[in-house]
Structure formats: C-alpha cells, structure tokens
Design brief:
Helix content is about 35%, strand content about 20%. It is globular and about 55 Å long. A twelve-stranded mixed sheet has the order 7-8-9-6-5-4-3-2-1-10-11-12. The two termini are about 25 Å apart. Helix 2 links the parallel strand 2 and strand 3. The protein has one domain: Aldolase class I (TIM Barrel). It has ten helices and twelve strands. The structure holds iron/sulfur cluster. The site of iron/sulfur cluster has 11 residues, from loops. Iron/sulfur cluster (SF4) binds next to loops.
C-alpha cells in the first residue's frame, strides 16, 4: 500500500541561524522532542503504508545530539534517506553521517556574499557553511543546494550559484518564497515570481525529460548542472502534494501545507501506550484527512 510515499521528519526544532523568511516548517510551538527509539517506532509503523522516502529536517537537524547514531538506525528501515541542513555543522559531521548510511543532503545557500548572508541570517557565518558544503562533497554525499530567490536581495546571483554548484558536482534548486509563516509586508517586499527564471532556464538549458511530469518542480540541465525550480504558487493547483506528510519533532503529524492544524499527535499516542497496529491506523487516518481536504478543494 503506497499511501505515504515520502515523509519529512523534523528531528530538532531549534536552529542556529535566524533567516528572515524562516517559518520553522510551520512548527511554532514544539513540545518535547521524540527520543530515538520513539522516532524509530513511529517510522516503523508507517512502513506498512508504503513509506519509501524519509527526509530529515528541523529547525536544524544537525543540532540534534547523536544524530549519526540515529541515522545509522534509520538507514536500517530500508527507505531512501536524505537530510536538509543549513550546512554549519557539516564540517564536523559529514564524514560520520556518510559512514552511518546517509547518502544525500540538501544545503540552504541563498548567497555567496558574506555581508548578504549576515543580513539574511543574522549571523556572519557564510565561511562555516561553505566549509560544510565542501566537507559534504569530500565525504561523498550527493549534494543539492537550496536557494530561496528574494526580490531585491539575491536575484542576480542565480548564475553565480549555478556555477558554484557545478564546481562541486552538486545540483541546485531555486525556491520561490512561501507566504506561510511570514508577514504579508515581508512577502510583498521580497516575493519574486520564478516565471522569468524558468523562461531563462528553458532558453539557456535543456528541459529534462521528466520536467513536465514533475509539474511542481521542473528540472533543467544548464552548463552541465541540474537546476530545479520549486514554485509554491503551483501547489495551489488541485491535487498538488496532497500525499505529503510531515512528522514534527514532538510527534505531531501535519500535511504538507504549512499553517494547517496537526492531523494527529502520534507522540502522545505512543506515550499513552499505543501499539504498532494503533499507530499504523493513526498514520492511515492522517492520509485520509489529506484525501478529504484535497477532494474538498
Ligand atoms: S537555516 Fe532553515 S531552519 Fe534555520 S533559520 Fe534558516 S530557514 Fe530557518
């Protein structure tokens, strides 16, 4: 049964950067973090529903104490395992994570300019991120850089960022600013539609075969680099991402759209003594809610 093909799993709710557009995966009031054994139990109970892809997120996942040990356990589940990070801790952890069974990482990188990085994140730490990116490449992790495109901030850096990704053998994804979790004033000031970037990529690059099937994330090959676009406006289309689920660090389960209420609190169910069958039933209920929401739109 392929009801939960992929799951974003927040393993740590705090972050050591303060990006001005951050919505912390919509998880503004996190409760107690799940212990490793609780997290593993919850994910095991999702496997019968077809869970094939797990992406570890935060906050900043690398701030979770003992993450490589957790990754080693998660790798035994047999799902495709990846992680999204701000990159700061990769310089010290990339080797251990690769040895533990991690294969891919997404690293946030909106700019290659130190002053701009400081303004965007509140920290003068671009050099640390770049060190982490290089350590991840050296450890053999497959890399994808994630850059949020912001009007009046980094629009003109797309070519430089593509070249930087190419130099590392990495992919790059340009992300449209999401309206969720930020003020409408900030959104109006910084939102940049990616239409013209998509046009530029179509003219300069080669649309990859599956660009039309992956309607929400068209992909291109430009100067030997795979470039994808993540356009949130497209998620408003009926059916878009209806099957995506997110597990928050405290065990609550959400749909993919930030800002919606939790569909279930699996952490509380686990602490209340729920067994494997009951937890699988709760996962299935989360899927059903998504199908109902989707059908109602
Ligand atoms: S790195 Fe990610 S989680 Fe941390 S503040 Fe920036 S956007 Fe938020």
């Amino acid at each position: 049964m392929d009801l939960i093909p992929s799951l974003r799993v927040a393993v740590w709710s705090a972050c050591d950067l303060s990006c001005e557009y951050c919505h912390r995966e919509g998880d503004v009031h996190p409760g107690r973090h799940l212990a490793d054994r609780e997290l593993l139990m919850l994910l095991r109970t999702a496997l019968p529903l077809g869970l094939r892809k797990i992406k570890l997120t935060g906050g900043e996942p690398l701030l979770r104490p003992g993450l490589p040990a957790l990754v080693r356990e998660l790798a035994t589940l047999g799902a495709d395992l990846s992680l999204t990070t701000n990159g700061l801790e990769l310089a010290t952890q990339a080797g251990d994570l690769a040895a533990a069974g991690l294969r891919r990482v997404n690293i946030s990188l909106d700019t290659l300019r130190p002053e701009r990085f400081r303004e965007l994140t509140g920290e003068d730490r671009l050099a640390g991120v770049l060190e982490g990116v290089r350590a991840a490449a050296k450890a053999g992790l497959a890399l994808e850089l994630d850059a949020v495109v912001l009007r009046g901030v980094n629009e003109e850096e797309t070519v430089d960022l593509i070249a930087f990704a190419g130099g590392l053998g990495a992919r790059i994804q340009f992300i449209e600013l999401s309206q969720v979790g930020i003020s409408s004033t900030y959104y109006r000031r910084r939102h940049r539609d990616l239409e013209s970037l998509e046009r530029w990529l179509r003219e300069r690059g080669e649309a990859l075969e599956d660009a039309t099937r992956r309607f929400d994330r068209p992909r291109f090959r430009v100067n030997g680099v795979t470039v994808s676009l993540c356009r949130f406006v497209r998620y408003a289309e009926p059916g878009a991402r209806r099957r995506g689920l997110r597990l928050a660090a405290d065990g609550r389960v959400y749909g993919f759209r930030y800002g919606e209420p939790p569909r279930a609190d699996l952490g509380a169910a686990l602490r209340g003594g729920a067994g494997q069958a009951r937890l699988t039933e709760l996962w299935a209920r989360c899927v059903r809610i998504g199908q109902e929401v989707s059908a109602a739109r």
